[in-house]
Amino acid sequence: MFKFNKVLFVIFFLSFFVNFSQEINWLSFEKAIEAQKKSPKNIIMDVYTNWCGPCKLMEKNTFQNKFIADFINKNYYAVKFNGEGNEVVNFMGRKFENTRYDKSRSQTRNSSHQLTQFLGINAYPTTLFFDEKMNLITPIRGYLIPKQLEIYLELFKNDEYKSINSQEDFDRFIKTFKSGL
After folding, report:
1. Of 20 and 127, which is predicted with more confidence?
2. Separation between Cα atoms, residue 76 and residue 136, nearest integer Å
3. Is 89 a domain residue?
4. Residue 90 resides in a domain
5. Three-state SS at 44
6. pTM beyond 0.70
7. What are the C-alpha distances in Å from 115 to residues 20, 37, 99?
């Protein structure tokens, strides 16, 4: 009987943990572009660095939220990109790399990747949204809690954002927004 209760407890504990933690299907930027050609969806890109505290918090508190992870997996291709890493990326007919990358500084501040410079990123974390044709919709700078990110996820999952032409339009969208969290 004791062994049965122990097994039951472990099953209960694991099911509880699985319900509140979810994995996003992160892809490389190039794999997301390839997937988009076969089955178009917008792309969300989390641009982070290894030394960035808010980036780590966003990974833990926002991207591991079950609702957020499920929503992203269903509606987007998700890309996690180290803004100071050494990944080589081909995008828009150009090759982007970090030519001054220093491996000995891989866990601390390093030089900025050419892709982050091209995309105008100067703060971490930055969340980027791209449409199905790989046009940059917008960058969102800074740490986002799940409720904040959910608004942008809903807004940019399709062409609804194109109807927002002013702060008043955005405020109206926020007022009528129904959170799933």
Report:
1. 127
2. 14
3. yes
4. yes
5. strand
6. yes
7. 34, 21, 11
For residue 80, give its domain range: 20-176
Q: For position 133, which CATH number holds?
A: 3.40.30.10
Torsion of CA 113, 115, 119, 125, to 10 degrees: -50
In terms of Cβ atoms closer than 10 Å to its own Cβ (0-12, 13-18, 19+), residue 38 is exposed
Question: Computed over its alpha carbons, how large is the radius of gyration of the chain?
Answer: 19
Cβ-proximal residues to 88 (8 Å cutoff; 6+ apart), any chain: 95, 96, 97
Q: What is the DSSP string of 62-82?
A: IIT-HHHHHHHHHHEEEEEEE
CA distance 133 to 42: 8
Angle between helices 66-75 and 146-156 (to 10 degrees): 20
Residue 69 inside a domain? The answer is: yes
SS3 153: helix
Q: Say how many domains are in the chain.
A: 1
Read off φ and ψ for residue 47, nearest 5 degrees.
-100, 120
Residue 76 to residues 36, 79, 97, 106, 154, Cα–Cα distance (Å): 9, 9, 25, 29, 11
Q: What is the mean pLDDT of residues 89-109?
A: 95
37 is a domain residue: yes
